[in-house]
Write a structure and sequence with these properties.
The protein has 15 helices and no strands. By secondary structure, the chain is mostly helical. It is globular, with a radius of gyration of 25 Å. The N terminus and C terminus are likely disordered. Bound molecules: protoporphyrin IX containing FE (HEM).
């Protein structure tokens, strides 16, 4: 391993020469805040806060690849799922920490920021290639972004400025070639045994189709019963309510059977969420919860960034040229794991679920793969 500085870190050494500063690369790290340029206290705070975020981004990128690699396998061993959950938990905590870290930024007053803002030129967090790398590894598609923005567009222009910027572009291009976390998760969900039927087995298509149809019928029935109850009570605008339920049914159909064909990954997800109490589904549901928690923490991170920005620069145009707060608020709508959120809309209370078939498969079984 690289030896950073005299007496520094060497993973292969015995550590006897190691110093705290050397191990952490502190001398280098603490020389990167522009003291020699005589920056003001406020500007130093601005720089340190950004650098701290970027350090966390670096760690998050490592964690996300680790989680993706665990899930990106034809047979995810049960013993590996808790590991993925642990890493997800760490990323969530980092995002929570970062979401509250905006408070430190908010100690910068609007006037205090204006005092050095011009010096930033067009530099903006918009140019954070680590932020884009995180999004790419997670699986945020251009179509899901504000104005269907190409995440690399801006970095192609920046790449002409310096070797380091060119290297950042290469890094992002390479990330785009990787399996995303959302697609690894989707492939894993697709293999969920549904009503005891295994992915790819004889009769699986029919078994899954029967399960999905039974669920959709029970879901539609809720609307029918609710509407007749409301009609009996003389609720006004009953036609509007009926139309709302009809749209909800159509939404449930489109979710589970896009283009009329069952989406097995979504059916698997529905099955896990519906029969959460089954022992064999315990870890899968913990994993799903952990992913939802991660995305929620990211959304809150984005939301708090927008509020901090609104407080400091109001509705000004951003240094990167975007609409500023409006742009940042629009990014809070991003949902990379849309299916995990969407399935919640169509869940049924336990007594309305289709009767479980082949329940013994989901009992307390040992993991034969270990
Ligand atoms: C006074 C403090 C800050 C202000 C006023 C501010 C303002 C903005 C604005 C207006 C944008 C939209 C792009 C643009 O037009 O520039 C933006 C984007 C961004 N900022 Fe900040 N920001 C601040 C601090 C930070 C800090 C400390 C970080 C931590 C790394 C950060 C990270 C980002 C990122 C990653 C984006 C891109 C968001 C996206 O495209 O999804 N910002 N910021």
């Amino acid at each position: 391993m690289r030896n950073n500085m005299g007496g520094g870190y060497s993973g292969s050494g015995d550590g006897s020469n190691r110093t705290y500063g050397g191990y952490l690369g502190l001398h280098e790290l603490l020389s990167l805040q522009r003291d020699e340029e005589g920056v003001s206290n406020d500007e130093m705070h601005f720089i340190v806060t950004h650098q701290t975020f970027e350090l966390w981004f670096k760690q998050v990128i490592r964690e996300l690849r680790e989680i993706r690699d665990i899930l990106d396998s034809k047979h995810v061993q049960e013993s590996q799922v808790p590991k993925a959950v642990e890493h997800l938990g760490r990323v969530t905590e980092i995002f929570r920490l970062m979401a509250s870290q905006w408070k430190v930024m908010e100690t910068l007053t609007p006037q205090g920021f204006l005092a050095f803002r011009d010096g930033l030129g067009t530099a903006s967090g918009f140019e954070s290639y680590q932020m884009r790398e995180m999004e790419i590894i997670l699986g945020l598609e251009p179509v899901g972004r504000v104005s269907e923005m190409d995440p690399l567009g801006h970095f192609r222009k920046l790449a002409k400025r310096s070797e380091a910027d060119a290297a950042a572009l290469v890094r992002l291009e390479a990330a785009l070639e990787e399996t995303t976390l959302v697609s690894a998760l989707t492939a894993w969900l697709e293999r969920t045994p549904i009503m005891g039927s295994f992915y790819g087995s004889d009769g699986d298509t029919a078994a899954v189709e029967a399960y999905v149809s039974a669920h959709l019928a029970a879901y539609a029935n809720i609307g029918v019963e609710t509407c007749s109850r409301m009609e009996a009570q003389g609720v006004e605008n009953i036609e509007a309510v009926k139309a709302r339920f009809a749209a909800a049914n159509q939404g449930a159909n489109d979710f589970l059977k896009p283009d009329g064909v069952v989406n097995r990954a979504r059916a698997g997800l529905l099955f896990i969420e519906s029969y959460r109490e089954l022992p064999l589904l315990a870890w899968p549901r913990v994993l799903i919860d952990a992913v939802v928690e991660l995305e929620e923490s990211m959304v809150l991170f984005r939301t708090h960034h927008a509020r901090m920005v609104e407080r400091i620069i109001g509705r000004r145009v951003g240094t990167g040229g975007s609409s500023g707060v409006d742009y940042l608020d629009a990014t809070t709508k991003y949902r990379i794991f849309g299916d995990l959120w969407g399935v919640r809309t169509i869940l049924l209370k336990p007594e309305l679920r289709p009767t479980l078939l082949n329940g013994e498969i989901y009992g307390f079984a040992g993991d034969e793969s270990q």
